[in-house]
């Protein structure tokens, strides 16, 4: 499949869905605290989508059961919300949401710090956030997708962290997952060329230890670091404009 160049009308619809995704993370923030289970958070997110005439792209996606992915500590991504997973003081957690509004998709995630978080964990989270924005800064017409992964991996490695390579960003908007795959490790000047109207996610997953992940054999979804060390991730949906980029998943 080729990379979809979105029309102005499509971009406007995707922009609204992305804004809803960002606002959902703002809405959930006061509830993300010690003693709260992740299924409770997921139910609140689902209710928020319903109140804004949207559905969740993740429910039923290849059998995924919930409205969001909530991934604490060593969970890299695709953590399934559950009553048995209760947030505690010192945790870090990623919440990833993808609403469908009027048939169009928006996709974003961010880290939340629970109570008194260690300096070690805070450092990881800050590096992951900086990696996202370094990646976004590479977006412009004529740039290559490999430029994104190059910038992210150079910085993460310079800080002593590893970059997950088994998951990547992706085109989004008309469908949940479109071309291209947006790798977070790359070589400058390689990969497809960016053109105005392309929309995709950048979502680097940065690990304290080894870059590899292991998928939970029971649920088939939860991806954890192979060595049990912490992981952090931030994600935005980005539009290539005539002169550079626009981050579509910024909250009001």
How would you describe what is shown here?
By secondary structure, this protein is an alpha+beta fold. It has one domain: Creatine Amidinohydrolase (Alpha-Beta Complex), CATH 3.90.230.10. It contains four helices and 17 strands. Strand 13 and strand 14 form a beta hairpin. The radius of gyration is 17 Å and the shape is globular. The two termini are 34 Å apart. The mean pLDDT is 98.
CATH topology: Creatine Amidinohydrolase
The residue fraction in helices comes out at 25-40%
The first-level CATH class name: Alpha Beta
Specify the structural class.
alpha+beta
Q: Find the count of extended strands (DSSP E, 2+ residues).
A: 17
Specify the biggest β-sheet.
Answer: 3 strands, antiparallel
Please outline the helices and strands.
Layout: H1 8-28, H2 38-51, E1 54-56, E2 69-72, E3 75-77, E4 92-97, E5 99-101, E6 104-105, E7 108-113, H3 119-136, H4 146-158, E8 162-163, E9 169-171, E10 178-182, E11 199-202, E12 205-207, E13 213-215, E14 223-225, E15 231-233, E16 236-240, E17 245-247
Antiparallel strand pairs: 1-5, 2-4, 3-14, 4-7, 5-6, 8-12, 9-10, 11-16, 12-15, 13-14, 16-17
Helix pairs in contact: 1-2, 3-4
Search tags:
single chain, 252 residues, alpha+beta, Creatine Amidinohydrolase, 3-stranded antiparallel β-sheet, 4 helices, 17 strands, 26% helix, globular
Outline of this structure?
This protein is α+β, with helices and mostly antiparallel strands.
